[in-house]
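Milestone M4 deliverable, item 7.
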Amino acid sequence: MKTTFRTIPGCPPALGPYSLAVQTAAHLLFVSGMTPWDPATDKIERGTIAEQTRLVLENIRRIVTEAGGDLADTVSCRVYLGKMSPENFKELNAVYAEYFAGENPPARATVGAQLPGDFDVEIECVVAMKNKA
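Output delivered:
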């Protein structure tokens, strides 16, 4: 059994045949790759890597909260950077640490990728949920 989240207030709409997140009976929430969509403008943000990363992580936070979870329970993240450079990686890490600091940060992979829509950051994650699916 699974619970799907196709639309969530204040989050970007799923623009294809996918859900924003899926919660499994095993109490895992799989959040689809989120982009730097700004709910205030209903557009993709083209600012700095830090600004884009913050928007992405806020979108993820909204999804996790709507599903009844807590961002602190994230167990894994996959980060995609449109341009893998030392500067972009450092800027991404500075903002990422604001959300996942502490002794038990999630596992993570960061890769360079050509992202659709020509944005610079996309992040997907898995969260261990305390509630039942």
